[in-house]
Write a structure and sequence with these properties.
476 residues; Deoxyribonuclease I, Chain A; four-stranded mixed sheet; 12 strands; 13% strand
Length: 476
């Protein structure tokens, strides 16, 4: 048995897994795309009651393949462990051994090509029976997916050619032809900002038509449960009892969603999972909104400005004047090279070496997952959780090009300006400081550059070490 588990920490999924094992009693089963590491694999082994397993742990939250078996019924020897597959030799009752490969193919086409090459080499070197099963992240023809274009048809042809080269035979199946779906078909080579815009629109539609309004659902479920209880108070009906239990389960799921919603809106990051409290997060959100709302300000004459358009005009004019050049400066004047120290050849090589995916990935995974987003609405969490899907669009198609001076996509550096109070109960515009809420994609570029510059800054001596102190905001 092979199951694309898509995360192993969910209690409902573990309950379903136990039921499947109880029903079908597989001697060997594989879980792929587990998103977890070794401790969880061993926990699952204890829960399902299998005494042996082999695994390839997830890298961060990517991938993961776990294979379990009962050693008293079958003998298994792992042969190859790879981030995208595990190959093992299986024998039973001294019979003819055969090979089994559990696959979770990377969403990245370049990584998949490596997988196809390695498995084709294995097929040429061995002539025992061989079963390959898992998630190949490919289809044999366009009828196996909803939608598709010329590029997708080309991928289908390449996958079919690989199957023929390995002399594999596809087993028939029963059940629904399409067993899962996702909101958007992400194109690795596509424009990042355009795809984010398209995905945002589709997610809004999905939220309205599929996910639904959490608060309306909660009210409806409470009303229906109340109706069931009133009916049960009059007569004990089995159907009503079953319905009430079903509605209570749905309500539990909706309450959990509500809790997560308020948790994200509250911006509270010092409480860990397990300590969540919906009322606390709700109040935190309302307090934050109240503090951040500007209803009125005093102008230079000490007169309160309350009308919305007048208030906007007052703020805009203040910052226009603040950031307008004052005085007679020659912006084209040459700057003496003596002001800056000369970099060593080693530092120059460090700064000018080619940018890599590893640098970009490191920056993304070190970002605060739920920090306030920029104009595109996507937080760092989106990139962290979907890195395998968006990696090529982020790295090769967008970020590395921008870092090498090949230009930004349209709207890439769009920014929201937010005014943060410097004092409690501010009355004047001077008592606020502006901050920029940039798109995460733009932050990636700036943080990659900052990481490189940070490496050579200690060699500079500007006469005031406080200017570039780590963690300081005094960049003068």
């Amino acid at each position: 048995m092979v199951w694309n588990f898509q995360g192993s920490s969910s209690k409902p999924k573990l309950a379903v897994l136990k039921e499947i094992i109880r029903t079908y009693k597989p001697t060997v089963f594989a879980l792929i795309e587990t998103h977890m590491g070794g401790d969880h694999a061993e926990k699952v082994q204890r829960i399902v009651g299998y005494d042996s397993h082999a695994r390839v742990d997830a890298v961060g939250f990517r991938g993961g393949i776990w294979v379990y078996w009962k050693s008293d019924l079958v003998s298994i020897t792992p042969i190859t462990k790879h981030p995208q597959y595990i190959t093992m030799e299986i024998s039973r009752n001294s019979g003819v051994p055969w090979f089994f490969t559990a696959v979770y193919a990377s969403p990245n086409p370049q990584d998949r090509r490596e997988l196809w090459t390695e498995l084709a080499d294995f097929a040429r070197r061995n002539n025992h029976p061989w079963m390959v099963a898992g998630d190949f992240n490919e289809t044999r023809n366009l009828t196996e997916r909803h939608g598709g274009d010329a590029n997708m048809a080309r991928r289908c042809d390449m996958f079919n050619n690989w199957i023929e080269d390995c002399e594999l035979i596809e087993l028939e199946f029963s059940g629904a032809a399409h067993t899962w779906s996702r909101v958007d078909n992400w194109q690795p080579e596509g424009d990042l900002t355009a795809q984010l815009g398209s995905l945002s629109t589709k997610l809004q539609t999905w939220n309205e038509q599929v996910f639904g309004n959490i608060f309306r659902k909660k009210r409806e479920l409470w009303a229906r449960i109340n109706g069931c209880q009133k009916k049960l108070a009059i007569t004990r009906d089995k159907g009503t009892i079953v319905l009430e239990a079903k509605l209570r389960k749905e309500l539990d799921e909706v309450l959990e969603r509500e809790e997560i919603l308020w948790y994200q809106k509250s911006r509270v990051d010092f409480i860990r999972d397990g300590d969540r409290n919906t009322s606390y997060f709700h109040v935190s959100t309302l307090v934050r909104r109240w503090r951040n709302r500007i209803n009125s300000l005093k102008n230079n004459d000490g007169v309160w400005v309350e009308e919305k358009n007048a208030l906007i005009s007052h703020v805009v004019e203040f910052y226009k004047k603040l950031y307008t050049q004052d005085g007679d400066y020659d912006v084209n004047a040459e700057i003496s090279y003596d002001l800056f120290p000369e970099l060593s050849n080693e530092d120059l090589r460090w700064l000018t070496r080619p940018y890599t995916e590893a640098e970009i990935e490191g920056v993304i995974h070190n970002m605060g997952a739920l920090k306030a987003p920029g104009p595109d609405g996507f937080q760092a969490l989106f990139y962290q959780k979907n890195w395998e899907v968006v990696r090529q669009s982020v790295c090769a198609t967008t970020i590395i090009k921008a870092l090498h001076g090949k230009g930004f996509p349209d709207n890439f550096n769009n920014t929201h300006i937010v005014l943060i109070p410097k004092v409690t109960g501010p009355e004047y515009i001077t008592q606020f400081r502006p901050i920029s809420l940039c798109n995460v994609s733009y932050k990636i570029v700036s943080k990659v550059l900052a990481n490189r510059i940070k490496h050579v800054l200690p060699t500079f001596d500007f006469g005031n070490p406080k200017w570039f102190r780590s963690g300081s905001t005094n960049f003068r």
